[in-house]
Amino acid sequence: MSVSPPAPTARRRLVLGGGLVALLAAVLLVVLVVREPGGGGSAGEPGASAAPTSLAPPVELAPAPVTPEPTGPTSVVDELPPSLEPVALDQQAAVGNGITAEVESLEAIEGTGQGPGNIAGPALRVTVRITNGTGEPVSLDGVAVDLAHGTELAPASPLDDPSVAPFSGMLQPDESELGVYVFSVPAGDRDLISLSVGYQAGAPFLVFTGPGR
């Protein structure tokens, strides 16, 4: 018995049916893939597995560095300017840049103290002359005058006597100025004195030595 081939309409139905089955199979496969862990599904969709979260190990913070306590001075102290070779009390001393100084007079007086810390008593009154041999005005506001006495050259205390008249102001070229200073010095300790004169900060000291009697 021979079987007749299916009619064209029947063949089309078979083809469409086969294609629909294949399409459904593909959709089912996609759904299954999406539902698998790590398959790309959203965390909010039903059945979707959330990707595992890896927690980083805790980080241990290093302790803050401790600031060491200072073991010395916090600032560098500038060295004192050098002293030039001493000259006699009756000689002129020169810095080398045109500035010269000399001891105009040295007098033994009974000093009178004014204000706290000043004690009246035997003293030496020193008058110093500074001459400006440079071509520019020189400020005398920073002049420093110190006196030491005795074989050990002990520093003498300045005395605020009424006759004191320290250097100040500007000294013009080719002019000179006088400064008066009083120091407490015992009468029996004047065999040797050393007078230091610095005409400005950082300048070398002009030194005068000799007996203070």
Task: Explain the overall architecture.
The protein has 213 residues and is an alpha+beta fold. It has two domains: 9-41; 87-210, Immunoglobulin-like (Sandwich), CATH 2.60.40.1240. Helices cover 13% and strands 30% of the residues. It contains one helix and twelve strands, in the order αββββββββββββ. It has a five-stranded mixed β-sheet with strand order 1-12-11-6-7, with no helix packed on it. The protein has a five-stranded antiparallel β-sheet with strand order 2-3-4-10-8, with no helix packed on it. The radius of gyration is 52 Å and the shape is elongated.
Please render the helix and strand layout as text.
Layout: H1 8-35, E1 87-88, E2 92-94, E3 99-111, E4 121-132, E5 138-139, E6 144-149, E7 154-155, E8 157-158, E9 170-171, E10 176-184, E11 193-198, E12 206-210
Parallel strand pairs: 1-12
Antiparallel strand pairs: 2-3, 3-4, 4-10, 5-9, 6-7, 6-11, 8-10, 11-12
CATH topology of the largest domain: Immunoglobulin-like
Number of domains: 2
Largest sheet: 5 strands, mixed
Q: Mean pLDDT across all residues, rounded?
A: 77
Any idea of the CATH class of the largest domain?
Mainly Beta
Strand content bin: 25-35%
State the shape.
elongated
Strand order of the largest sheet: 1-12-11-6-7
- How many individual β-strands? 12
In CATH terms, what is the architecture of the largest domain?
A: Sandwich
The residue ranges in which pLDDT falls below 50 over 5 or more consecutive positions are 6-16, 38-50, 64-77
